[in-house]
Structure formats: structure tokens, C-alpha cells
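in:
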């Protein structure tokens, strides 16, 4: 049994979407995935989704070739919750629905400071992907790219610097970012459990004057 994974080009991606009728993608590849969510989910949760990658997987079996799709996306409320969803299906529609369902089940809470940043610097690795998240001063914005930027935008962070090392895998870098934010949340929770005031804790660990650096 042989499995072949290929990334869809923009033209092939548009053709697959038109055939399945699942998504309405524009020229930039941004898709209106939120239309696939039930109406009651929109009203209660108001989650946003960002498509990271769609891959076509061809499995060679005894009877011939079997094609399926894998969808990777970020789900978040742009306030304090974010998660990663991965879905597999025979068409783009089914894979996207599974990815959205998976993403909403794996949401984590992000510890935000008053300046919409993180309390302190943290590094994390997942597989061969290594990332570093660093707090930034107010007005610096999100200095990051790729899958890391998508995760940070939907988490509600506004001022942060991120550095990516190692693997360029979209899924591994996105998961490393989620794990880093989750580890950061655990450290803040431990501080609050020790009767440390949240605002004082933020002011104590937050670097007030950090010059944003654009890593090359």
C-alpha cells in the first residue's frame, strides 16, 4: 500500500472547491469556511477560521487509487481562545467540517496582558519545528509569519514577536505555537494559585520597553 500526498495548486484548489461546492474561495485563497458552521454555533460562539493548508492524499490500493483530502485550519474567537483543527475526508466539504469540529474541541485559553501581549518569553518545540514567542511593546503589532501568525491573530494577541526555527511544516509550527501558549497559560495559572494578583503578576514579568526585532 502506497500513500502519496500532494499540495494543491491554486487552480486545482479552485477546481476542487467548485466541484464539491463546499467553499467559495477568492483569488487570494481565503475561504469562507464559516458558512459550513451551523447557525446556532455562529450565534453562541462567534468563532473565526483561517485555512492553513489543503492537501490531496492518494492511496494506492489493490483495486486502484483512492483519493482523499486533508484540511488544516485555525479556529479562534480573536479574544482569548484558539485551537488547531485537522480533518480528513473524501471531499473538501467533509474534511473541512471535521477540521472545524476538531478545532473547536481543542480550544485553549490565552493569558493576555493589558497590552495584548504575553507575560514573558517562551520557547517550545514540536517534532523538528522550534519556535520562540517574545512579548513586545504596545503598537509593535504581530511580528511573525506563516502558520504562527495565523494562530497568534486568532488568539487575540496584538503585540508579540515570534521566531521560527527548524522545520517549515505548517502543521508542526502551528501545533508548536499552540503548545507554547498552553504552557504559558499553565505557568500563569500556577502564579495565580499562589495568591499572586493577576495584574501585579503581569506587570512584574512583562518587559515594558522591548524593541521589536524583525528576525531574518
Amino acid at each position: 500500500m502506497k500513500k502519496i500526498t500532494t499540495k494543491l495548486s491554486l487552480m486545482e484548489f479552485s477546481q476542487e472547491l467548485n466541484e464539491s461546492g463546499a467553499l467559495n474561495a477568492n483569488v487570494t485563497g481565503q475561504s469562507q469556511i464559516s458558512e459550513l458552521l451551523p447557525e446556532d454555533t455562529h450565534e453562541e460562539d462567534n468563532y473565526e477560521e483561517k485555512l492553513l493548508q489543503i492537501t490531496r492524499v492518494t492511496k494506492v490500493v489493490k483495486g486502484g487509487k483512492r483519493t482523499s483530502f486533508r484540511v488544516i485550519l485555525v479556529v479562534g474567537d480573536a479574544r482569548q481562545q484558539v485551537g488547531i483543527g485537522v480533518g480528513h475526508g473524501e471531499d473538501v466539504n467533509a474534511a473541512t467540517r471535521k477540521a472545524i469540529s476538531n478545532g473547536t474541541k481543542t480550544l485553549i485559553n490565552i493569558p493576555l496582558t493589558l497590552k495584548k501581549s504575553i507575560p514573558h518569553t517562551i520557547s517550545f518545540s514540536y517534532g523538528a519545528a522550534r519556535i520562540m514567542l517574545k512579548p513586545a511593546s504596545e503598537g509593535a503589532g504581530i511580528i511573525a509569519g506563516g502558520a504562527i501568525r495565523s494562530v497568534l491573530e486568532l488568539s487575540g494577541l496584538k503585540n508579540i514577536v515570534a521566531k521560527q526555527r527548524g522545520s517549515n511544516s505548517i502543521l508542526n509550527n502551528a501545533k508548536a505555537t499552540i503548545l507554547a501558549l498552553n504552557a504559558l497559560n499553565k505557568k500563569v495559572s500556577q502564579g495565580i494559585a499562589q495568591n499572586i494578583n493577576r495584574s501585579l503578576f503581569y506587570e512584574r514579568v512583562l518587559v515594558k520597553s522591548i524593541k521589536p526585532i524583525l528576525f531574518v
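note: The chain has two domains: 2-108, 110-205.
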